[in-house]
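Late entry, evening session. Most of the bench is empty. Finally got around to the prediction I had been postponing all week. Sequence below, unchanged from the version circulated by S.P.
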Amino acid sequence: MVPKFRLVIGILFAIGVCTTFAADQKYTIAVIPKGTTHEFWKSIHAGAVKAQQELKAKGVIVEIIWKGPLREDDRDQQIQVVENFVARHVNGIVLAPLDSQALVRPVVTAAAAKVPVVIIDSGLKTDKYASFVATDNFKGGEMAGQELGRLLGGKGKVILLRYAIGSASTEEREGGFLEAIKKFPDIKILSSDQHAGATRELAYQASQNLLNRFGREVDGIFVPNESITVAMAKALRDIGKAGGKVKLIGFDSGSLSVQDLKNGDVQGLVVQNPVKMSYVGVMTVVDVLNGKTVPKRVDTGVVLVTRENMDQPDVQDLLHPPFKKYLNE
């Protein structure tokens, strides 16, 4: 027979009445990014540590294990990381899947093993997760398309350099951009089928290839992540087309891309809130472990940043995430 006290507490958690954590709870949560080299992922790591620190102040001890593939195209390694954590029976997982299809099987396996998974950043083609915490990436792409159309006065020739096949977040950004550009009938798309790849070096090579072909006629470019933004800006400088001669809209903030925005080589950055994304991800896993009902989808917001608004305090917080504060860097 279940003691009355435990039964009552269980009922309170189940109906969401209990809003505080029990003392001395201890959890192990694995946070698995797409990669570990870009500044975006340092911000994701910082958000997880922020959640860990706040939970500790409430008497909830969370061990964060940060582990992901070195490269953002190493599907096999990320699958192995997830499977290993499931086999270790960690209490929960926060995952940014680098492929919307390839990571389905390990997430389904985790669900079957009663290891709750919160998906962040990029979507997954299954519903066997506890919650999806991310930017509205399609909206972000639309914002980029609208801004590029405005900068070009509704006419001209543009390029979309994609990221990688299977990356749901960037595919949604690309789709949103193309949808927005349709509203400008006098804008012609020169190229929209090329992919930059997972590293800045590959993105630079792809950018050079496109500019070698279209550099004399292109008026505007959209790229859907931070590494391609930096690479394309450099490639434009190489041919004397930076500084606004070719309008460039990028995605995400990093020290180099923010500098390029400041000096005028990038005309706009569509910026997410990666610290919030992983912070909410970890908090949501803990809520699930405490029997709370959590939303299936959480939108963490997106902002278009230009030279005109980049010095606003709230925008500065997005452009310069405080990952050093939480990661001791």
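Two things to note before I forget:
The chain is about 45% helix and 20% strand.
The two ends are 52 Å apart (CA to CA).
Will write this up properly tomorrow.
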